[in-house]
Amino acid sequence: MKRSFLTATAAIGTLGLVLSACSPSTGGAEKTTDPSSEQSTSSESTTVTFRLWDDAAAPAYEESFKQFTAQHPDIKVEVEVVPWGDYWTQLPLDISSGEMADIFWVNSSNFALYADNGNLMNITEELGSDHEEWQQSVVDLYTRNDALWGIPQIWDSIALFYNKDLVDAAGVDVTKLTWGDNDTLLPALQKLTMDANGNTADSADFDANNIATYGMNAQADMQAIYLPFLAEAGGKFQNEDGSFDFASAEGVKAFTYITDLINKYHVAPSAAETNTNGDLAREMFIRGEMALFQSGPYSLKTIADNTDINWGIAPLIAGPEGAISTSHGVVAVGNEATQHREATLEVLKWLGTTEGQAPLGQMGVSFPGAVGAQDYFVNYWAEQGVDVSVFIDSAAGKTALSPFGPDVNAGTEAFIPRLLDVFLGSVPVEQGLKEARDAGNAAMNL
Questions:
Q1: How do residues 346-380 score in pLDDT, each as one tens digit?
Q2: DSSP secondary-structure letter at 194?
Q3: pTM
Q4: Last residue of a domain, which of 378, 396, 414?
């Protein structure tokens, strides 16, 4: 919700190259309830632990669990936040040592490994199909071997944040931006990119070494940038067997276009900066130094709480195959090794209800996974003067398949270094993509 997508390794950690749906915030690991307070309660009560990686969502869960405990006074829920940079390193250690929380968040890049290893409760077997309606795209994403392995919690899609004043001054219609054969995006970005002397990027006097305002973000951001562009070019990230396939002719077309925005036309910030600071583009948008920022609802609160610019949200940029968003989600999973199985199942049931997820929407955290709670999120932002329906439309349209498979995280970590070189322009696109693909597939033994 606060930051761009990150992964656990240092090379990947600042870029957001593995999908997480809700992006991480920067707080340190903490338990948001005081364990000592529980000791004063009845010795008959059971404590269920709940772990997540985002401190922006923690208050919503605290509120939800207050309501849960009011209805189930014999069960207390303790929330702990482990920041994203440590989350995926700590998870396997805690599972192997028996110290893992009873319930915890996972994303699509990581759940299959733990499901296959028998670490997660089988939701289909434990809770059946008699529950409230959940976001189908998230259900599909976390269904493996004909079973659902988590309770949908939040979901997101991609749209285009824009600076109304900059766009109006340049005469750009953000609802009609396309790339490819009918390219209206590049000319628009050239009008929107301006150097310190007031020259736009389509001017002969433009100084690419002294840029004051960039057109848009074009960094190595999987969810917001290159998965949509890849799909819009007709390409795919993975084959049915899980092997990477982004080095296709369509992939070369998409990545060439993206990296040309950076290295050839200078309408997007240098990869030398964004490769090491995945939040840079959003920070620039907040400061009014970037006209367009393609991202998801996880950026809403950070932008709304930190900027004075006049901004809005438009549909994501379309390509040769139309506008194709990524649609992702986060689930709460049950620890198969929990010592409090019945209590844990009661909490999981609660986490799948409209009542249980209402605070996520009411506090503007993200679109809840329980369909009945989603209006809370829409209404929260409507009261702030922001129409978030564009994200709903984006998710309802054509979407790109999110990364999948038990080894996709290892494969992604293997291909990232070479992909970063592609964005830097230090290796030809076609060569770099093939080398990245091969490294990723080798890491997955595919």
A1: 999 999 999 999 999 999 999 999 999 999 999 99
A2: E
A3: 0.87
A4: 396
